[in-house]
Design a protein that fits this description.
This protein is an alpha+beta fold and 170 residues long. It is 28% helix and 28% strand.
Amino acid sequence: MPHPTPQPTITPVHPHDIPELLPFLLAARADMFPKLHNTPIPADLAAFEQVYLRGQGRFLVAKAQGRIIGAIGYLPYDRRFPGLDYVDLQVVEVVRLFVLPEYRRGGIARGLYQALQDMAQAAGVQVVYLHTHPFLAGAVDFWHRQGFELIGVDPDPLWQTTHMQRRLPS
């Protein structure tokens, strides 16, 4: 059930957001991937300002009543998955989409993605890539509704990494 507060604001992350954002993202990661809870902080989060504010990554937050309730980012795709042929294309990978449970089903994730896609398109990105997993309830269907197409599923029975892409109009 959507939260009954006014629509959140979606903005790029600013340095003053980082002290609230990092714990938000780490808690989201622990919630979605409990097996990763006690692993080291991911490199992109450890160097958040360098990667997302000074580097080629981008990150957005959704706030309601001054509090972060959702987040999404993208990074240049690093070609770590074999078989995905993006030769001579500018490709980014969607990372770290999360909306607090009490705010889900109210269009916040869709708004975050649309704003991120607009940023990517303005930067000349041609393909938006992502991977997700079937155990993340509703994720594959959500991305299909955003215009993504399935490009493959890894045979690993635990993760079943699901690769998806969306080509952006030029």
